[in-house]
Amino acid sequence: MAIARLTETERAEALAALPLWSLRADGLALTRTFRFADFAEAFGFMTRVAILAEKADHHPEWFNVYNRVEITLTTHDAGGLSTRDVALAGAIDGFGS
Ligand SMILES: C[C@H](O)[C@H](O)[C@H]1CNC2=NC(N)=NC(=O)C2=N1
User: Fold this and answer.
1) Alpha carbon of 2 to ligand 1 centroid (Å)
2) Is residue 3 part of a domain?
3) Phi and psi of 83, rounded to 5°?
4) ipTM of the modeled complex
5) Cα–Cα 20 to 30 A to 64, which of 36, 47, 72, 80?
6) Taken in order 57, 60, 64, 68, is the CA torsion positive or negative?
């Protein structure tokens, strides 16, 4: 399903509202790295995010090593950032540290 990419203004507003997230160098994704006490905590977080992502039908790209979870949010259907990434980033912030 097609969804619009954020305009430059919308992207700037989104970044201002999500201070813990960074814009990937190409401007097409949001990134944030989370660190937890151990793997169990990290995987518990990933499980919560996975359930949310399934409900939203919007899925993160992520990389986990032990207690670290690197998340990249982008919208494949838009070829870049959309409101779905902003919404998911905000929701994920509610789970992480
Ligand atoms: C068919 C299904 O709705 C789409 O493939 C969804 C699934 N999850 C998705 N996740 C992300 N990150 N981007 C998408 O464009 C996307 N599209």
Assistant:
1) 10
2) no
3) -60, -25
4) 0.95
5) 80
6) negative
